[in-house]
């Protein structure tokens, strides 16, 4: 009786060792590291295998795991976890012999639209337990880009759609808000890096203070971004499609977010008088550029501003001697109608006559 107890106890110990070994190999005890910067979290759902956790922060596990999306390459890495089938790998090294080439790692396309609009998820993931299965299940999970219900990430970083994992895994849903899903769950990237932008675009009209100089328009905008602005490009064209810009200038520098930018365009050398124009701007930071942002269209002045010119007689007047100023200004296509003279130290000190007479005390 005692011997039987010993054998039974030894059998329990042996079974326990085997179970622990299996758990260490294929369960949560497997050494899994996706790094300290896993940016994907939350849960997916499958009617076949239940919840799929994309980060240990989601399920409270002490094991450090998670799925990470490289914002430089658009490729996923790391691990998700299912209580029923174990680890699901997104690592490229585990995805080299997929059923249908090309055997690319799961990635987003197009990467440059991440944070701007929906980006598709394509490629493969794999349940590692499928590598050891002897019943024909291989563990492959396909993100079928271009098909109805395909998986994608929206501009806020939330996953949507489905992936197919054969009869064992079935369909994995990534967002309970999707049609046909249901439930309060989702997989998310959290805070998606947003591209820089420009706001409050305005263009100033030439003021009366510039009537005697070169006519110009000033273009203003406010840069908005998570990092400093490194470059901007401004285009001005008389066609709304900007097919052949009359003015196209790119400026590099280092400007903090929230600060104003401006660019001055001289009318008589770069634009045409009496014309209607459109303008737009694009801004850059270290991560990329904005889309083109349109400013309000504007009209240039009907004709060039007057060219002010005058002479006086005598050329070297004495104190209290009458000095006659003669207006030689050119008003181009229209006659000069109004004048405003200012004489510092003269009497009178101002005049609106065409040819005023002035005396100076010294």
UniProtKB/TrEMBL annotation:
Keywords: Membrane, Transmembrane, Transmembrane helix. Residues 343-362 are annotated as: Disordered. The chain crosses the membrane at residues 6-26. Gene3D superfamilies: Immunoglobulins. InterPro entries: Ig-like_fold. Signal peptide: none annotated. Residues 344-362 have a biased composition (Polar residues). This is Fibronectin type-III domain-containing protein. It comes from Candidatus Tagabacteria bacterium CG10_big_fil_rev_8_21_14_0_10_40_13.
């Amino acid at each position: 009786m005692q011997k039987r107890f010993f054998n039974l106890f030894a059998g329990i110990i042996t079974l326990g060792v085997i179970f622990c070994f299996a758990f260490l190999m294929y369960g949560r005890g497997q050494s899994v590291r996706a790094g300290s910067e896993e940016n994907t979290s939350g849960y997916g759902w499958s009617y076949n295998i239940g919840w799929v956790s994309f980060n240990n922060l989601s399920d409270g596990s002490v094991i450090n795991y998670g799925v990470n999306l490289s914002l430089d390459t658009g490729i996923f890495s790391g691990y998700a976890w299912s209580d029923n089938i174990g680890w699901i790998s997104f690592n490229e090294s585990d995805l080299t012999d997929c059923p249908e080439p090309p055997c690319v790692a799961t990635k987003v396309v197009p990467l440059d639209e991440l944070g701007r609009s929906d980006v598709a998820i394509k490629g493969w993931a794999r349940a590692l337990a499928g590598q050891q299965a002897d019943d024909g299940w291989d563990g492959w999970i396909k993100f079928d880009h271009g098909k109805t219900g395909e998986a994608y990430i929206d501009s806020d970083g939330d996953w949507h759609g489905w992936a197919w994992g054969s009869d064992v895994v079935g369909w994995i849903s990534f967002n309970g808000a999707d049609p046909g899903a249901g439930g309060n769950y989702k997989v998310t990237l959290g805070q998606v890096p947003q591209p820089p932008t420009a706001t409050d675009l305005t263009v100033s009209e030439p003021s009366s203070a510039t009537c005697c100089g070169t006519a110009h328009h000033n273009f203003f905008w406010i840069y908005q971004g998570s990092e400093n602005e490194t470059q901007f490009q401004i285009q001005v064209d008389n066609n709304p499609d900007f097919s052949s810009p009359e003015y196209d200038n790119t400026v590099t520098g280092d400007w903090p977010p929230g600060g104003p930018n401006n660019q001055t365009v001289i009318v008589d050398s770069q634009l045409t008088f009496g014309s209607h124009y459109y303008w737009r701007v694009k801004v850059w930071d270290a991560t990329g550029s904005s889309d083109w942002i349109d400013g309000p269209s504007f009209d240039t002045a009907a004709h060039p501003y007057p060219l002010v010119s005058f002479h006086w007689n005598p050329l070297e007047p004495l104190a209290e001697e009458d000095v006659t100023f003669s207006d030689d200004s050119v008003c181009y296509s229209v006659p000069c109608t109004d004048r405003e003279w200012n004489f510092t130290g003269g009497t009178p000190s101002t005049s609106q006559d065409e040819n005023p007479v002035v005396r100076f005390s010294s």
